[in-house]
Amino acid sequence: CIALRADMDALPVNGVSHACGHDYHMAVVLGAACILKKIGYKKCVKLIFQPSEEASGGALPMINAGVLELPTVRQILGLHVWPGLKTGNIEITSGASMASVDDFFIYFKGISGHAALPDKCLNPLIPASELIHYMNTNSSLAKDNSSEKLISFTCLHCGTVPNVISEQAILSGTVRTFDNKLRYDIHDELVKVSKSIASKYGCKSEINYDFQFPPLINDKKVTEKFVEVSKLVMNEENILPLKKSFTAEDFAFFAEKIPSAHFRLGIEGNNKGSSPLHSSTFNADDDCLYYGILLMVNYIVNSN
After folding, report:
1. Rounded to an integer, what distance in angstroms lies between the CA atom of residue 304 and that of residue 299?
2. Do 222 and 127 contact (CB within 8 A), yes or no?
3. Listed residue (300, 265, 303) closest to 23, CA to CA
4. Quick check: 25 and 80 in contact, CB under 8 A?
5. Strand partners, 57
6. For the chain, how big is the Rg over CA atoms in Å?
7. DSSP class of residue 211?
8. Spatial CB neighbours of 213, under 8 Å, sequence gap ≥ 6
9. CA proximity to 107, closest of 131, 71, 74, 139
10. Per-residue pLDDT in tens (0 to 9) along the chain, 304 residues
């Protein structure tokens, strides 16, 4: 059994819209099903329409509910439309293509008081600021594997008025990696260093680390077979190597469980498909649907 997966939720853009192209993903999978039926294909294909990719992630709950069982799925295909990539082109590579995504909240706790009497207080803003500087300059993780990870500090909340030192500072951000070991190494260092720096200033720290999606890693054999089959129906120059992106995709949970291939489908043509994902002006060239259906159907027919 081969599975085809389409995510299907919309975004709060222009009211509610498919500004990430999930409507195209659904149309490709439905179109592939229609063609397979029309040609009388008899072997097992499972169609997975997955909610909540844009929110908490719907892939893992579906897996836990048995979507890959009865019958057992032995490999799975997924896709994502890609702005700026010409219609009729795809991008695909084995190994990591999209990053893990984890968010963190670090709470530094001190002693509040009057800003004119700082010696009577423990200012939590100081260790929070030092942690940002350390992770960007002195941490070994900041210097090594720079192309494999991204640590972004995005929010620092501490106090509300100029003359009061707050009791608490909350530092938050996101971590993206293409490697699971590096992913957990970053978590361990953030915990260790935040506690050490907090202690240096007499403060305490706690961390709430939300492990969300793993990196999306394509299976080598499935990807090579997908490229081989694609060359039968497309010009080889239209099958391009994929440049890794720090964006995330919860198809990664399927790819952790079974061999998979996830590719990017070009949508730029007929004066459409150049606006970025999640933008209010996102659109796509409808001709892209032909290529998505063509590739999925031919892979299934040539692989089963």
Report:
1. 9
2. no
3. 265
4. yes
5. none
6. 23
7. E
8. 57, 100, 101, 248, 249, 250, 252, 253
9. 131
10. 999 999 999 999 999 999 999 999 999 999 999 999 999 999 999 999 999 999 889 999 999 999 999 999 999 999 999 999 999 999 999 999 999 999 999 999 999 999 999 999 999 999 999 999 999 888 877 666 678 899 999 999 999 999 999 999 999 999 999 999 999 999 999 999 999 999 999 999 999 999 999 999 999 999 999 999 999 999 999 999 999 999 999 999 999 999 999 999 999 999 999 999 999 999 999 999 999 999 999 999 998 6
User: Residue written as tokens 């929070």?
Assistant: 128
The token pair that represents 125 in the structure block:
């803003």
Closest CA to 303 of 238, 219, 235, 244: 219
Residue type, 95: G
Which three-class secondary structure state does DSSP give residue 7? strand
Angle at 90 between CA 42 and CA 252, to 5 degrees: 75
14 φ/ψ sector (left φ>0, alpha ψ -120 to 50, else beta): left
Contact 90, 77 (CB under 8 A): no
In sequence order, the 6+-apart residues with CB closer than 8 A to the CB of 288 are 24, 81, 87, 265, 266, 267, 269, 273
Q: What residue has token string 């259906």? A: 293
Q: Burial level of 31, CB count in 10 A (0-12/13-18/19+)?
A: middle
Spell 72-89 as b/e; 16+ CB within 10 A means b: ebebbbbbbbbbebbbbb
Q: How many residues does the chain have?
A: 304
Phi then psi for 294, rounded to 5 degrees?
-55, -45
Query: How many H-runs (helices) and E-runs (strands) does the chain carry?
Result: 8, 14
Strand 204-213 relative to strand 101-109: parallel, antiparallel, unpaired? antiparallel
Residue with tokens 């720079």: 146
